[in-house]
# Entry
Amino acid sequence: MTGAQALIASLEKEGVELVFGYPGGVMLPVYDALFDSKKIHHVLTRHEQGAAHAADGFARATGKVGVCMATSGPGATNLVTGIATANMDSVPLVAITGQVGTHVIGTDAFQEADTTGITLPVVKHNYLVKDPREIPHVIQEAFLIASTGRPGAVVIDMPVDMSRSEIEFKYPEKKTSLPGYKPTTAGHARQIKEAARLIMAAKRPVIYAGGGVVTSGASKELAELARMLEFPVTTTLLGKGAFPETDKLSLGMLGMHGTSYANFVMMKTDLIIAVGARFDDRITGRLDTFAPHAKVVHIDIDPAEIGKNVAVTVPIVGDARTVLRELLALLKPRVEESGKPDGKAWHRQIREWKKEYPLTVPEGGLRPQYVVNEIYRLTKGKAVVVTDVGQHQMWSAQFYKASRPRQFISSGGLGTMGFGLPASIGAKMGVPKERVVNIAGDGSVQMNSQELATAVLNEVAVTIALINNGYLGMVRQWQELFYDKRYSHTHLRRGESPDFVKLAEAYGARGMRVAEPEGVEPALKEAFKVNDGPVLIDFIVEQEENVFPMVAPGASLDDMIGG
Amino acid sequence: MKHTLSVLVENKPGVLARVAGLFARRGFNIDSLAVGVTEKPEISRMTVVVDVEEHSLEQVYKQLNKLINVIKVVDLPDENSVQREMVLVKVKADTKARAEVIEIVEIFRGKIVDVGKGTLSVEVTGPSSKLRAFEDLLRPYGMVELVRTGTIALPRG
# Structure
């Protein structure tokens, strides 16, 4: 068997059924082997970045490891943004890149790039295969590392001579054990006990849930804990759906564009129970004024996140689900015995904030918030929503209430424009029975619009709801607020150019245009009838709408513009 | 504040780049770094001296531990460890100065490893503070070239 065949056979052993990629010179042996695979379906994207985001979207929607492939040099460098995007959001991704032959590595050979060197700072781990007999081990290790502990991206760089070598294929039966890799999953018993004590004593508690709850599959436990104690829950962008936002205990998202009430709660709380979240700067605002009265219980599988930005009272390193179960077991009898902590005054305060500072859709013209609201209404809140990055992303986060994990897919940490369309293709192929809506921006969609071809040719039925304001809206908003309305290079449209309807049609997709509020419902209903390919709806919205509330960069979390 | 970290790593290609890259990207300052294999050929030990505050030290420690090829990280406080460094100095020593230089070398229990026309090359080992004192004493004679290995360390007992 050749190294390339061993690679494909190893991927099959890991249960891979879907790969997104783009072939090239040094990947010819791998693509030749792939041609014979009965188990692996390969989707040809139109750009390597699209392949990485599609694999990422697939992983986020399914919880499985996403796999993408590209050739050496430019193929690999084009993957980098997608790899960094996945790694930053702790998404399990395995990227396989071709490399020039080992005898010419380091000679600036044709299409040579130092892929392991380039990707080193943006991966959980990477490999350069130097012995073809290692291939099965490397694949097994890569999947183990990508999918366990705090998941992340793993790159495997395969020199072409490794792919061509003959080896005897044997897949390791037992999982490899790595001397330097042993994620802690069970929380420290004494710390959990201490957390339980703080919880029972809290007067103004809040649960702050992040993407780790989704990754760990801890939503059920989180909901049980919150409801048993009647603690309010706020989620991060990546935590959306970790706790149903339709629940009366939900405060929605917090942070820079979070709800006012979630941010007020953070500033007044006396106990933050952080689960699978990392106190990112978009969450905390100004660090030295953040949550001044709060003790902090921080549950995270990555010890490096604990105490990184915010001082922690009770650190608990472990898997969110395992720790929450242990915490529940401790708390249940106490609550049964002495009742839950008295939160009447706290809940009254929160109700007042909610009443006084609700999220609202402004009147007049076609407002982007209205479009998101209509998408929410017409999909009954059940669609998988995949966003790009910018204003439309924040409006989606504010107005599309997620009720289950893996329902809201967005590039949070890296904030990668161009993520949405390819990620929605990967998501739809991962969960074909779900309705998948890509809420996009006119700036973002143009960064990977070539993937319309991928969606059309593979009959991927995603609805692309394009929030078209003719601007790089989020940057324009900052220019309006902080740079005296000097709109330097943020205007994207002249007249009807670019004409996104024609663009969609050029690829063989359906295109529609809506410029009036009355047109939104009929267009969406029509789009949702299509199930054999993508539909793009070009929503021409108010040009200078802003995302509010907003915590200005460097401002304190309760110092909100428009809040 | 200076801290000496002993980092046990898998002896694999690219590990040094992973460790050095981590320090660079997270903005931790390295004072010195010395690498070599241990009693087990598959494991290498890196001794890293970093100049960081207590809070950053915790991050250095945790971030190092996140590297897959890092097996163990130990902070070695001065009082509980043996720390050594070696310096090689080529110092100007004409016939007039030569006796004085040799005397200084003997006081520091150094070794003369090469004799040239008008120069002596000297090897001295010890804790970094001793090497600094040695350098200070030689400086007036004129140092032509100097190289230090960086600190290596083992826990006491």
